[in-house]
Specification:
This protein has 164 residues and is α/β, with parallel strands linked by helices. The chain has one domain: 3-Layer(aba) Sandwich (Rossmann fold). It is built from 6 helices and 5 strands. Strands 2-3-1-4-5 form a 5-stranded parallel beta sheet, with helices on both faces. Helix 1 packs across helix 6 and helix 4 packs antiparallel against helix 5. The longest helix has 20 residues. The protein is globular, with a radius of gyration of 15 Å. The mean pLDDT is 96.
Amino acid sequence: MKTLYLIGGTMGVGKTAVSQQLKNDLSNSVFLDGDWCWDANPFQVTEETKAMVTDNICYLLNNFLSCNAYENIIFCWVMHEQFIIDSIVERLNTENCNVKCISLMTDEATLRKRLEADVVAGKRTEDVIERSIARISKYQNLDTIKIDTVNKTIQQVAYEITKT
């Protein structure tokens, strides 16, 4: 049976790094970062672009799910509202598939430290910090498995996910 890991969390919580680790740890795995489906300049959030990115994500995930080469499909994205998760899962062919919805959690101080380091390194813009911090509490209300990332390595978080 296949396993689909939907890994959400606010920007800077470690979704991509943990997902890459899972891809290496799990056999016959493939990884999709939702950001790859919406990498545009300028980045525009409209009803049309939101529908487009969901279409892109679902198309790719369904292809991975139907491919016999993959047992583990790992997807990560900022999924801070239940309807985002639901709108993806309802469009996927998850027959013979175990779906694990996971939210990576952190506290404000840890997130601020991580994002400030990313800003200094030129990986993110400063406006991301407050937007990301404002979303932390939204993950508590989701129907997901919560995994705390504070004071844990990428490998430790990935291991916890495999044990869910």
